[in-house]
Specification:
The chain has about 425 residues and is mostly helical. About 75% of the residues lie in helices and about 0% in strands.
Length: about 425
């Protein structure tokens, strides 16, 4: 408590000193009483008067002849008159009362307005928050977040849950029949998988989550990464998009077994975003966008959320890599080999031009290098690699991604 009090008073002492100095610099010219300014012309007038006096003294001592004294007196008098005229035009009057009122008003506004503003926004005595300490505290709070059951109960009472469409009665009847079969054959792995899948398709995610857990128990050590990721997905959906500790556990198990699984990568990014690490979520989602085929189901979800993540991370919103639509792909199947190759070259050229003019993500540079490698244009792939080395010279992680593409294209050992 004593340390906080000391910080409180130290803060206010420094704040008062800085405020006083700033106000003095701003208001002193308005508040100071002055009889007037003394411009350079006034100084010249005094100098010429002194010179006239010296001429008279020199004449009295016989240093100057009368004719010389008269000529000097005439020249100095001419200059004196000129300086006096300039002085009359440039002399500044003393500050008016309006200036003093303006100064006092500015002083009062600064003090009162600053005090009110700080009382609303300021936190005197608040401790410093280094990045490492903030991240540690953030991780601690995230670890203590609500559990799955609590999150599901909260989502079940939300308007979003009430707006969900009702399940198809005929589909529900089929699921009832499947449950009856499984009651007689509890070790039927395929039946449990069908049950979880169908419950998920109907939007009965909480029930699907339970069915998936039963499936994982049956599979034991034979469960795949996707099985665990599906379990995490059902938990997240049944909690309204919230990644609970239980969902995080299932997701971690799945990602360990299937690191490249796109669904696992999407939910890992969602977990990081909710954990207060938008920087890591941004990188993961941006990479997934670059690796995803057009129309992948997770693209729309990422594009809906990544603007907020990018804003929180202070990064630009990534754009998906332009590519052919479904019709273009279908048309390409009927093309002659030469025409298909030409279409691919056109797409590669567009990507190369965009990277040269607008820049892009490391994954885009890597994709361009691999594309040149597939086309057999190793010189072009090498040129892109050399350019990327300069662009990402200070980003080792990004450079590693591009270097791997250069190895794949066989332009780097």
């Amino acid at each position: 408590m004593a340390i906080i009090d000391m910080r409180f008073w130290v803060f206010w002492i420094f704040a008062a000193l800085l405020t006083a100095v700033s106000l003095y610099v701003i208001c002193a010219p308005l508040l100071r009483r002055r009889a007037g300014t003394a411009p350079d012309a006034a100084f010249d007038v005094q100098v010429y008067k002194d010179q006239l006096g010296e001429i008279e003294k020199d004449l009295a001592r016989g240093v100057l002849a009368p004719t010389e004294a008269e000529a000097a007196r005439t020249e100095v008098s001419r200059r004196l008159l000129g300086a006096a005229e300039v002085d009359a035009k440039t002399a500044s009057p003393a500050p008016q009362s309006a200036s003093r009122i303006a100064g006092l008003a500015l002083l009062a506004f600064t003090l009162i307005g600053g005090g009110i503003l700080y009382s609303q926004l300021g936190t005197p005595g608040y401790r410093d928050q280094p990045l490492e300490a903030r991240l540690s505290e953030q991780a601690r709070q995230f670890a203590e977040r609500p559990r799955q059951a609590e999150a599901e109960a909260a989502f079940a009472g939300s308007p979003e849950f009430a707006d969900l469409p009702p399940a198809d009665p005929r589909h529900l009847e089929l699921i009832g029949q499947l449950r009856t079969v499984l009651a007689e054959r509890p070790m039927d792995v395929r039946g449990h998988r069908l049950l979880a899948d169908n419950l998920g398709q109907l939007g009965l995610w909480s029930e699907a989550s339970v069915a998936q857990l039963d499936l994982l128990e049956l599979l034991g050590g034979e469960a795949s990464g996707r099985d665990f990721i599906d379990s995490a997905e059902y938990m997240v959906l049944s909690a309204g998009g919230y990644v609970s500790p239980e969902a995080e556990t299932q997701l971690s198990r799945g990602v360990r077994l299937a690191q490249a699984d796109p669904k696992g990568r999407y939910y890992s990014g969602l977990l990081l975003a909710q954990a207060g690490r938008p920087d890591l979520a941004y990188n993961l989602w941006a990479n997934l966008l670059m690796d995803s085929p057009p129309g992948a189901p997770w693209i729309a979800a990422i594009e809906a959320q990544i603007p907020q993540v990018a804003a929180a991370a202070g990064l630009p919103v990534p754009s998906t890599l332009p590519g052919p639509d479904a019709q273009a792909i279908a048309d390409a199947q009927d093309m002659a080999p030469e025409d298909r190759q030409e279409m691919i070259r056109g797409m590669v050229s567009q990507l190369a031009e965009r990277l040269n003019t607008e820049g892009g993500l490391p994954e885009e540079w890597a994709r361009l290098i691999r594309a040149y490698g597939v086309l057999g244009e190793l010189r072009a792939a090498s040129d892109v690699w050399n350019e990327a080395r300069v662009v990402y010279a200070d980003e080792p992680q990004a450079l590693n991604i591009i270097r791997q593409a250069a190895r794949d294209a066989e332009v780097v050992q």
